[in-house]
Fold each of these.
Amino acid sequence: MKITIVGLGLIGASIARALQGKAYLTGIDTNTDSIKKGLKDGIIVEGDHSLSLAATSDLVVIALPVGEIVETALGLIDHLKRGTVITDTGSTKSHIVSRVIASWPWFVGSHPIAGSEFSGYDAARADLFRSGVSVITPSASTEGYCIEVVKRLWQMCGAQTFEMSPEKHDAVMASISHLPHLLSFVFMHLARDLNNVSNLFGKAFTDFTRIAGSDPVIWRDIFMDNKQHIMPRIEQYLQALKHIQSLIADNREQELEELLRVYMKTRRSLYEYPG
């Protein structure tokens, strides 16, 4: 199988590393250094900046920020043979799937639930997707063989696959990924003067703020593309925060403890902790 990966950043280069020796891999990236490194490391057989390099591909994976995926997919169409499967790795799906599939019926959206606060080619790892989950978001009209090709891609990378509609995907991701990232970013507004006490940072601070080190361009695009689902979640969070603020301000200790206990039980139930 000939697979072309457009974008050799963290996700794209990790896919290439995971597939090394399992397929004929071509890399496309406007960053010539990433192409040179990919060729030197042997994770791609050929590489260039031009989308025309994907012409003979069986599968094309677009591993770019959400804001670039649609334009790139539409630009690929002129170079591909009919029936070539295209997938992407974007963290939002509804807008991308609806736009691309209207022009290329062999497009299947996908989203690997994997990543890092680090970005770029040098952050890539062959095991990034191993034992993880990749969500596949076909439309109602997607042909079965296209879905199977994309499933096989992620299985070759070591991930399990899970099918979900693009709309459901975006609603779920707003709660379990997008809002947590947003809150971590915003918290850094309160951390700008903490350099002089960095030796006191504990696990709570480190865990909560780790994802605020993520690529701002990637997350700008995600927040804007999925604002339909993120905005209501922000409002719900603000209401909950204002409520707990009032409990503290009014010294309502018992109510505060009861609310924190509800939250504790909710967290533990998600991970099946005893008690």
Amino acid sequence: MIDARLQVALNGGGLDLPEEGRIAVFHPPIDADLRGIVPDRCDIIHDFKPSYDAWAGRGYDTLVTPAGPYVAAVVCLPRAKAEARHMIALACSVTEGVVVIDGQKTDGADSILKSMRGRVTVQGPVAKAHGKMFWISEPAADCFADWTQLPAQTDGGFWTAPGVFSADGVDLASALLVDALPEHLSGEVADLGAGWGFLAAHVLTRPDVTAVHLVEAGHMALECAKRNVTDERAHFHWEDATQWDPTGKVNCIVMNPPFHTGRAAEPQIGQAFVATAARLLTVQGDLWMVANRHLPYEAELKKRFAQVSEIGGDSRFKLFHATRPLRARRRP
């Protein structure tokens, strides 16, 4: 993790940060230890709502996009290579001094280091805890301008961006769910974890739907959804779906919930989505859901809904329809 590498770099490892001026830290993990960077001088740049809220809760100034110029920046590498390059290009464009890159080897730190060495003088690296930290001290905005990645249209005509789920095209699981949705949907619908809007766009083909709420934690994904879903019945919410609290109940929920934040499967995320769906639906509301076949969601669905049916799928994915959410009984 960045914690150990940052301390080594700052304490005899050759990294010196300016004593005055603001420093940007791009996409740090929620629990990262940023000792050595004064919180009052630090902007956390994060577009994932749970992380954004967590850093704000720790007292940091938190932004979706950088507000430079900065005297220094730290980039915590994401898994997607194109997104990582874009973040480096963005950091260099808003920083007048040192730009630090940190990442795990499994997130492509070695590949990024090699690519950067072909363009600028790179200092370090500090290798520790299965990752590397390295930095450049010269202005480098022009050196990485071609790494900038903006939202673009896929062959299918949908707008996506690097780092957004299923950025290269339609997710197969979502396509299965679309084919399974009934022709008649009505009332208010919520798409939890809406991504760039594929499910919501199809729900809006039903004339009796009065509103679709796209609830998405990724800010860039939601910006893409706004380009893909232009129906006036669409409403966009940059929120952690499991924490979303609308003013009223909805009639239907569709969702292809995420099941990991790192590399390992985390079924508790999808289970939290199921619990949220039960909380948000009317007493006769319907949930339509797709999931990877190996994920254990059946028990949670039966715990939260009076009726649960597996309605199809294939060798990789399973489809569920659940209705009549169960309300927690009040204690006398």
Amino acid sequence: MNVIPPALTNLIDAFSSLPGVGPRTAERYAYWFVRHDNASAIKLAKSLNELADGIGYCKKTFALVPAGQEFSDLYTDPKRDKTVVAVVAEPFDILAIEKTEQYGGTYHVLGGLVSPIDGVSPEQLHIHELINRIDEDKVVEVILATNASVEGESTALYIQQQIGQRNVKITRLARGLPIGVDLEYADQISLGRAIEHRQTLNSQESAT
């Protein structure tokens, strides 16, 4: 005997699969659509259907771009400094930094962080492409803007090792950021100060 119609059960299961959404929250979301007119459900369904075909990745920075667009506007904009690259874990970290209005360089999205426990190895991230960018764009500074977590620190250290002896200044966001807080959720003031007071991790600058 079905207490809940299969269509509603499927919707609850779909919401439950989202990060941070528990069973009770999923039920509330699903029931909200039941109680309201179909326009809201149709709008959500349309947005989800368009998601796969409407989004692409920049071939250089791996930031999100409209489908069919090769490069991010933040990369092609002549006002942006291509010789300075902020390395972030996920695309929405870019939005967090842009809101501070303290940064005028470009970005490089890794697509995650090195995490052996979760089965994420360096080879699965866009680290090799980053090294190529450093050479191709004659990058002078790499800002390691990964989260202040074990995974974020491990990833930053690995990237630093891969850059090796290249004549590139490597900096890390200042520790104005609370430990364990994802970049995406950091407040704008703290993040802005972290960018402004970023710390040098190597001595390449003094060697030039």
